[in-house]
Every structure is written in structure tokens, then in C-alpha cells.
Amino acid sequence: MPTVKSLDDLKKIREEALKKQQIKETSGKTEVIVGMGTVGIAAGARETLKAILDMIEKDNLSDIIVRQTGNIGLDSYEPIVQVVLPGQEKVTYGKVNPEMVRRIMKEHVLGGEIVKEYQVES
Amino acid sequence: MRELALHVLDIAENSISAGADEIKIRIEEDLSGDILQIMIEDNGKGMDQETLARVTDPFVTSRTTRKVGLGIPFFKAAAEACDGRLTIHSFPGQGTTIDVIFKHSHIDRMPLGDIVSTLQTLIIGTPDIHWIFEYQFNGYAFIFDDKPIKEAIEGVPLSEPAVMKFIREMLESGIQEARENGIVKAIP
Q: Which of B28, B52, B82, B178 has a beta carbon 3.0–4.6 Å from B142's, enabling a disulfide?
């Protein structure tokens, strides 16, 4: 039988996360946005977003906000991922599959270097 | 789209676009009645009769509204191909409810697919929306409401790794448990 989790577990998670946050307070949060319109979904946007979530969970990456948005307006480049580092311009990536996610996360989100090969004009 | 879960995601996106701040997703599998039913209910801005007619008919879509409801005709066709139907109840200012029924055993019925990924996408990707999910299997229900979770983690984002793990495991085990209990119940 799977264990039923309680909200008390979440309170412990919250306390630990807040402790980590206080240390990093000044650096701000990185945002990763995935376009989730009909065209995006049909092109695999859910799997792209899922790969981002899985990597955050598996590699224990805090201070990244993941959002989804409706149609970004670049149908032919779906799935679209946008990365916004604190205080920097939004960078748009096109036709992002789960394998590309790993590189974007590692090089851009964590390393601060834009992955130029995957970049599209938005 | 090859999974019902992807259609659910697409329909829920319409609810988000309609400005809803509370969205309920209900999926029921009833093997004895041979029915798979999906309901998506939102408190968004709703639609007038003209828009309603447009979103269900792929040939009357005007350019300006192309982006909203693009997936509804496909979902409707998929349901109708499986002895089912798709109905929309909507009224300006009163939100929209989409009700889709499939014959569960129909050979052309798409699999439910990865409903956990669909829910994760919605819950974590749109933290300002109150999400309620109900899954029923042969009368056994699992209900997920993200409000108490958000209250318990106040000040911590939903994309915090441990929070995401909590939500994922809660959804996975809840759905699995409803299925296991529902199957036991179905055996006479």
C-alpha cells in the first residue's frame, strides 16, 4: 500500500526551504516558462515541462520558478521554452525536447550561458 | 493528441485563458456502466451563444479567436467516434463546464495517458489557480485539492523540489489506490 502523506510533512519541507531561501535572498529567482497552447501540447510541450520538473526534483534545484503560459505566438517553433535569469532579458528557445532541456538547464539556468544553437528570435 | 490526458490539459488551458481562478477536473472510470467521463469546470468569464457555437465547429472559427478552443473540435470528434459526446455549458460571467463521455471499452478510445504529468503541469505551472482534481474508479474516489498544500507551504514556491515530490507522490498514490480498490470492488 502506498503511504498517505500528511500536511505535517509539508510543514517540515517549508521550514527547510525557508532556511535555504534566507541564505540566497539577494540573488533572486530564475524563471523558466513553457508555452502550453494547443499547438505546443500537440508538439510535446507537456513532456518538455515534465523534463524540467523532473530535473529540478532529481537534482534538488531550488530557487527556480517554473511557469506555463498560453500560446507564445511562434507556432512553428513549438515546444517553446523561455528562460529569464534575475535582472536579465528573456531568452527564447524553440523546438525544445526533453534531451535539450537537460542542456538548457545545465548551461543556461545553472551556468548562466545562453545555449545559442537552440535560441530563436521572439 | 494520443492521450485523453493531453486533451484535458488543452481544455484546462482554455479555462486559464478565460481568467478562471478555480478549476475542477473530474475523471470517472465506471467499468460496469462502460463509461469514461471527463468534466472540466471553471469559474472563468464564460462564453456567449455565438462563441459557444464557434468553438465546437472547426469550420466557423474566425482568425481572431483561433487560439482559444482550437482543441475542442478534436476532442469532440474523438468522443463521438467512441459512441460518446462532448457538451459545453457556458454563460457569460458564469464560467464554463465541459463534459465529455466515452464508451470505456470502445476500441478507438484513446488511453487516459499520463494524467499525473498533466496535473503537475497545471498545478505547478499556474500557482495562482486553485486546482481541484477528482478521480473515480468504479465508485472509488480520490480527491486532490491544492489549497491546503499551498497554505502549508506559504512563502515557498510550488517548484521547490521537495514540494514537487510531495505533490507528485500524492497524485500517483491516490490514483493508484482508487484503481486498486475499484478493481477489488468489481470482483464479485
A: B178
